[in-house]
Amino acid sequence: MEEQKTYLKRMAENLEKLDTSISELKAGAEKATGEAKADLKRRLEDLRSTLDLARQRLEVFKGVSAEEWEAFKGGAQKAWDDLRADFEKIKAKLKK
Description:
Structural class: mainly alpha
Mean pLDDT: 87
Shape: elongated
Radius of gyration: 15 Å
Largest sheet: none
Low-confidence stretches: none
Number of helices: 3
Helix content: over 70%
Number of strands: 0
Number of domains: 1
């Protein structure tokens, strides 16, 4: 159970850091022009939506059983990895 609490706390912290990073990228995207600006804004909005969904799911799994926890943990890690990868892609595109 302690592993679960530690994991959930770390994941919540990761989501908050990513939220801050998305806000920083959004400010950078404002400097872009034309189609690039519109594309970046759309991607960042999609990323923010995915981040909000991840927060909701995290709340749901705060009180799950040990069996549900094991199933959740693998899915949560994959979702986090995908979310982080999407962020890095947008970040790289913004630097171009």
